[in-house]
Each structure stands twice: as C-alpha cells, then as structure tokens.
Amino acid sequence: MSSVRRVTKGPEERKSELIDTAERLFLERGYENTTVSDIVKEVKVAQGTFYYYFASKQDILDSVIEREIDEPEKDVMHIACGEGDAAAKLKEMANVILNFQTAKRGLIEHVHEESNAIMHEKMERRIIARLAPNIAEVVEDGVSKGLLATDYPEETAEFMIAAIIFLFHQPDIDDDRRERLHAALEKILVKIFGLR
C-alpha cells in the first residue's frame, strides 16, 4: 500500500503560487466573481493557508497589482539614476510606460472589462503612485538646470503618467488614430514640462 505524500512548498513559493492563481482567476472571471474559496481550491490548500499570507481578497489583489508594476518601476528608477539630460530621461520613461501597455496588452484588456472595475482603478492609482516620485526627481533636476520649466514637478509627473494611461483606454483603435494620439501626447508633454 503506497502512501500519498503531501507536497510542502516554501513560504515564498506558496505565496507566489497564490498570487499567480488569483491573477489568473481575476482575469478569467473578474475580480467581483472570484472568491477566496475559488483561489484556494485551484491551489489545493486550506483557507487558513490563504489567510496566513493575505488578510483578504482585497489584500491579494493589491499583491497582484504591486507585482505587475515592479518591472516598469525598476526601469523608471534605472533611467532616473542614469546618464542623460532630463528631456531624454522623460522620453525614455514615457516609453517604459507605453511599453508596459504593449507587453501587458492582454492584462490591460481584461482590466478594462466591467467585472474588473476595482482592479482597473487600483492599478491606475498604483502606477501613478509608484512611478511619479522618480519622474518628479528627473523633472526637479531638469528645472534646476534650466532645461524644464514647471513649478509643480510632482503634480506634472502625475499628469504625465495619467496622460499616457489614457492611451491604455484605447485598445481597439486604428493605426491612424493611435498615431494622432501619440503626436498629441508628445505636444502635451512638451508644454507641461516647459521643454526648451
């Protein structure tokens, strides 16, 4: 008679597995239509295991969103610390955010579904909160060197991200409309940063 051995995973591996599963279920079913029970059934763990890592479904949603934003935040921080003038850095940072949209197109489309309204709103707020400080730092440096002109570096950085995020709301537009939006965005950014 053979005994079935239970697979024990390390805490970080188990937590990551719960986050992966929650993200997949949120995208497949919608945040509102996914329960903690659904998540633990998929991972084949007890509810107590879930609550060991997360206080609530809202808490695991926060972890899903934070993990998605890790990569663009690292890229923006790397640019902020790198060589180049403020204008070049801002352009690179804008491209990081635009590339996030392209790389995560499937996620972005799912997040814009009505059933994911909470996830959508939280993701947008967290992108702005996490990326704006590094962008503001570059803006402040540009202002101090006379390359940029704005009295509100942090708020201007937030508007920059919000303007780029607006493009995320246009997933099914044709190429001509996309080009026009990108051209308009570039003109807006030149004005809000007071680029010389």
Termini separation comes to 79 Å
Instruction: Indicate the low-confidence ranges by residue numbers.
Output: 1-5
Order of helical and strand elements: HHHHHHHHH
- Total strand count, please? 0
Number of domains: 2
CA gyration radius, whole angstroms: 20 Å
Structural class of the secondary structure composition? mainly alpha
**CATH class label of the largest domain:** Mainly Alpha
Helix content: over 70%
Indicate the proportion of strand residues. under 5%
Under CATH, the topology of the largest domain can be stated as Tetracycline Repressor, domain 2
| Mean pLDDT across every amino acid position | 87
CATH homologous superfamily caption of the largest domain: Tetracycline Repressor, domain 2
Oligomer: single chain
Count of helical stretches: 9
Pick out its properties.
disordered N terminus; Tetracycline Repressor, domain 2; 196 residues; mainly alpha; elongated; 2 domains; Arc Repressor Mutant, subunit A
Write structural notes for this entry:
With 196 residues, this protein is mainly α. It starts with 10 loop residues before the first helix and ends with a helix. The radius of gyration is 20 Å and the shape is elongated. The chain has two domains: 11-57, Homeodomain-like (Arc Repressor Mutant, subunit A, Orthogonal Bundle), CATH 1.10.10; 58-192, Tetracycline Repressor, domain 2, CATH 1.10.357. Helix 5 (86-103) runs antiparallel to helix 7 and helix 7 crosses helix 8. It has helices at 11-29, 36-43, 47-53, 57-81, 86-103, 105-111, 117-144, 153-168, 175-192.
